Structures are given as structure tokens and as C-alpha cells.
């Protein structure tokens, strides 16, 4: 029996700067690992199977589990992986912009690599966040579709993070379609501007300076639709957070506190489904 921790991510900045030939959007983002969020147990077996247990929220997985899709892809390339029985204990639901499925796929790839299968190259095909979640980097500047990574140096005990999971979910592909309709391919930032903005954001956070609302091109859409986030952001401000924002294409929101100023975070907002502290 093998155990793997599965990591999630938040985006400390997220700009869409163009379109790639693949149809994917070209991103400039700071990915920051959170977790471990899920736990994967793997046994060799007679047939593939995944049992999913959501430990904190009432959620479900739509369609085929990303773990099975990962095995399909690798086997289709001619690598003979034996049948696996997998148990997945999930704290983070899908559709929350936290790389929930990507972190599980990264944990499976990590197991397969340690078992001697050369499968790292499949990471980017499985999901835009998988290369980062498979990497050792705790923080990275991500470009391309999210797979071009430049690790950033972060003082490990600098921040405490609260991730707030609302009652609503966002489907990443749908959110990109809505972003296209909103921006009409006239993106707010060029690659160069987004990169220098991301570096400035990161430098200020590393110095522990106040920033407030972090850049994310999906924020306008989500804040228009769910004014509820504003009350949460006011709670973050009141409790001394230095920065907050939306993660990925939503739906979760998060905040960062300097370690020494953090006295815990909880909220009574009725639409909040869960709060995770890291
Ligand atoms: C938006 C982010 O949360 C930022 O961290 C992630 O890049 C999303 O990563 P992910 O959920 O792993 O995304 P994938 O599963 O690869 O893609 C889901 C869908 O989102 C869209 N997608 C995703 C990433 C990207 N750079 N451009 C896109 O247009 C595509 O329509 C794709 O079919
Ligand atoms: N093991 C898994 N964990 C989570 N989602 C999974 C899993 N397997 C399949 N899925 C499906 O993948 C999709 C993940 O949704 P989505 O891409 O919006 O993820 P997310 O958690 O919001 O992360 P991201 O930040 O990568 O966008 C959902 O449709 C979900 O049902």
C-alpha cells in the first residue's frame, strides 16, 4: 500500500495575456502551493477502481475521475501500468479554482515515477496545473498554459493562508469562455506587464507589506455575479490580512496574513461552505 499527499494551489496573481495555438489561454500567474489537501492511497489490484470520500463538503466528481483519465492516457502511449485500486480522501471540492483534480493527478504521477515508470512528460497534457503540483517548487511564476515554470524563493513560514470555499462552484472551461466574451481578446495586460506586476506583487508580499485585492482577470466577472465576496474581503481586512483574492477561475477566495499577526480566521457568512487554514 502506498500513500501520497495531494497538493492544491492558489493564484497570488493571474493574468490572461493571449491565446495559444492549442486554443488554451496564455497565462502569467504566481502559483502558490497549499496543502496537503487530499490523500491518495494506492494498491496494485486486479482492476482499476477509485473510491472517493469527501471529508468536509458534500461534493461529487462529474464524469470519469482524473485518476482514471491519467492511467488511460499513459497506457494509450504504450506504458503498461498494472491495474490500481485507489482511495481518494478529498478536502477540496472540484470547481473551486484550487487545482483539486490536478493535485490528485500529480500525486498519482509521483507514485508512478517512484515505481519506475517515466511518466512526468504527461503532466501538462493532463491539466494545466499538474506540472506545478508535481514539481518540488512551493511557489512559481507560471506562463504558457501554466506549464512553463520559474520557481520563486519564498520564506517558508512567512504567511498563514485561509481558503474560503463558497456554496457555488465554477467550471474552469466555462469561465474561460465567459472571459473571452468579456475581454473580446483585448486582454488587460501584455506578457511583459503581467510579469512585472506579478514580480511586484510577490516582492511586496515577501516583505510582508499590505496589498489588498490581488490581481486576477476572473475577479471582475465573479465579483459582478457574487457581490457576497465583498463582505468576506471586508472580514479579511478587519482581521489584519495583507492580501486577498479569488483563486484561479473561482470559486474559492483566500487571504494571506503575516505569520506573527495571524489570530485564526472564521466567518459567520451564511454562504461559506468551508474554511481551510494553512
Ligand atoms: C485557470 C487556472 O486555475 C490557473 O491556475 C488553471 O490554469 C486551470 O487549470 P486546470 O483546471 O488544470 O485546467 P485544464 O483542466 O487543463 O483545462 C480546463 C479548461 O480550461 C481552459 N483553459 C485552461 C488553462 C489555460 N491556460 N487555458 C484555458 O483555456 C480550457 O478550455 C480547458 O479545457
Ligand atoms: N479527482 C478529482 N478531483 C477533482 N475533480 C475531478 C477529479 N476527477 C475528475 N474531476 C472533474 O474535473 C473537473 C475539475 O474542475 P475544475 O477544472 O474546475 O477544477 P478546479 O478544482 O476548480 O481547479 P483549477 O484551479 O485547476 O481550475 C470537474 O468537472 C470534476 O468533476
TrEMBL record:
Protein family: Belongs to the GHMP kinase family. IspE subfamily.
Matches recorded under Pfam families: GHMP_kinases_N
GO biological processes: isopentenyl diphosphate biosynthetic process, methylerythritol 4-phosphate pathway; terpenoid biosynthetic process
Pathway: Isoprenoid biosynthesis; isopentenyl diphosphate biosynthesis via DXP pathway; isopentenyl diphosphate from 1-deoxy-D-xylulose 5-phosphate: step 3/6
Primary enzyme class: transferase
Organism name: Pyramidobacter porci
Catalysed reaction equations from the record: 4-CDP-2-C-methyl-D-erythritol + ATP = 4-CDP-2-C-methyl-D-erythritol 2-phosphate + ADP + H(+)
Annotated keywords: ATP-binding, Isoprene biosynthesis, Kinase, Nucleotide-binding, Transferase
GO molecular function term, any single one: ATP binding
Name the UniProt record assigns to this protein: 4-diphosphocytidyl-2-C-methyl-D-erythritol kinase
Protein task: Catalyzes the phosphorylation of the position 2 hydroxy group of 4-diphosphocytidyl-2C-methyl-D-erythritol.
HAMAP family named among the record's database cross-references: IspE
Active site feature: 9, 129
GHMP kinase N-terminal domain sequence ranges: 65-115
EC code: 2.7.1.148
Amino acid at each position: 500500500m502506498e500513500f501520497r499527499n495531494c497538493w492544491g494551489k492558489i493564484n497570488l496573481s493571474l493574468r490572461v495575456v493571449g491565446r495559444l495555438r492549442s486554443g488554451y489561454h496564455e497565462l502569467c500567474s504566481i502559483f502558490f502551493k497549499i496543502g496537503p489537501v487530499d490523500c491518495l492511497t494506492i494498491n496494485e489490484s486486479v482492476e482499476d477502481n477509485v473510491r472517493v470520500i469527501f471529508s468536509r463538503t458534500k461534493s461529487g466528481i462529474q464524469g470519469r475521475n482524473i485518476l482514471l483519465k491519467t492511467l488511460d492516457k499513459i497506457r494509450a502511449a504504450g506504458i503498461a501500468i498494472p491495474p490500481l485500486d485507489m482511495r481518494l480522501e478529498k478536502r477540496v471540492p472540484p470547481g473551486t479554482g484550487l487545482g483539486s483534480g490536478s493535485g490528485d493527478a500529480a500525486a498519482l504521477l509521483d507514485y508512478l515515477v517512484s515505481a519506475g515508470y517515466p511518466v512526468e512528460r504527461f503532466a501538462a497534457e493532463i491539466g494545466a496545473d499538474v506540472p506545478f503540483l508535481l514539481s518540488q517548487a512551493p511557489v512559481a511564476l507560471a506562463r504558457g498554459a501554466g506549464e512553463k515554470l520559474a520557481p520563486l524563493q519564498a520564506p517558508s513560514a512567512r504567511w498563514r493562508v485561509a481558503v474560503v470555499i463558497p456554496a457555488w462552484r465554477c467550471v474552469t472551461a466555462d469561465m474561460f469562455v465567459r472571459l473571452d466574451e468579456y475581454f473580446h481578446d483585448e486582454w488587460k495586460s501584455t506578457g511583459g506587464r503581467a510579469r512585472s506586476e506579478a514580480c511586484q506583487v510577490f516582492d511586496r508580499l515577501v516583505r510582508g507589506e499590505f496589498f489588498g485585492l490581488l490581481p486576477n482577470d476572473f475577479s471582475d466577472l465573479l465579483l459582478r455575479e457574487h457581490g457576497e465576496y465583498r463582505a468576506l474581503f471586508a472580514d479579511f481586512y478587519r482581521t489584519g490580512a495583507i492580501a486577498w483574492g479569488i483563486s484561479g477561475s473561482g470559486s474559492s477566495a483566500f487571504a494571506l496574513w503575516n505569520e506573527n499577526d495571524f489570530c485564526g480566521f472564521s466567518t459567520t457568512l451564511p454562504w461559506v461552505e468551508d474554511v481551510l487554514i494553512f
